[in-house]
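Standup notes, structure subgroup. Blocker cleared on the guanosine-5'-triphosphate input:
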Amino acid sequence: MSVFKRIFSKEKKQTLDKGLEKSKSSFFEKLGKAVAGKSKVDDDVLDNLEEVLVTSDVGVNTTLKIIERIEERVARDKYLGTEELNQILREEIAGLLSESNTGEDSEIALPEGSRPHVIMVVGVNGVGKTTTIGKLANQYKAKGYKVVLGAADTFRAAAIDQLQVWADRTDVPIVRQDMGSDPASVAFDTLQSAVNQQADVVIIDTAGRLHNKVNLMNELTKIKRVMQKVVPDAPQEVLLVLDGSTGQNAFEQAKQFTAATEVNALAVTKLDGTAKGGVVIGISDQFQIPVKYIGVGEGIEDLQVFNKHEFVDSFFN
Ligand SMILES: Nc1nc2c(ncn2[C@@H]2O[C@H](COP(=O)(O)OP(=O)(O)OP(=O)(O)O)[C@@H](O)[C@H]2O)c(=O)[nH]1
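Run returned:
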């Protein structure tokens, strides 16, 4: 491992540790109470644990899955001490994350022969979509890729201006039209411009209003259809951005967006400053869509490529 990689990893770990601080301390405080005065994992402890997981925003279904797996271990091993619970939870959670997140670092890679690689970013207003696009543009640019941004969230002028701010900050070109123009037309122009410039990656911002599922579906389908006139297999990625600090709301949004379009990647933002970090585990398990990025702060560097081992390590160490 190079020195750079080692330094980088250490910094990444520190940021991740800090980002998960609140979720972690709240979880272990609850877990401590759940096993207080108990030396073995029995029905009471399992009931308490269920409550801990649900109130940590892991979600009911994933919680039941974890509890069931621990019950199986209790049945098999006959005796399970509460001091082993941490380790067992860690293994079960790592196992769940492995089922939906393949590979080590799960960034959106740009495969050879896929140029431009088009990432359509969806999610409701305020979840951190624009910020995530800016951070992502910065990461690709730092790797030497040519990036183009498309401001297809034409519903609000502020959304276009905000993306422009990120384009300026990261020094990447942006394609924009006036507020109220057709998002599909902006997406089309963006792809054409990207093809002309021989760009490697295009990141398209969309409005994603959840006023009505049919409208959302129609809008996203139209954007896709129009983009495919320029790049037949676009978008290769549909990245759904969810605000981790909204806990169960994030589940609801994931449900709506996955019903409206084919989401194949998730970014969970604002994990810093929230105790709801368990949402990452539940969402990736329930939707079987890999979490590719997590947002752990407002700064340009605060978008981490999600790594299930690092996540579990940071949470349990
Ligand atoms: N603490 C923290 N704040 C974040 C993170 N990601 C985004 N934010 C903040 O969340 C707020 C909303 O982010 P935006 O990127 O504007 O969200 P958006 O989804 O594009 O919303 P609209 O611009 O309203 O469409 C901003 O103040 C961001 O700085 C994160 O990972 N951590």
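Discussed briefly. The chain has a mean pLDDT of 90.
Next: hand off to the docking folks.
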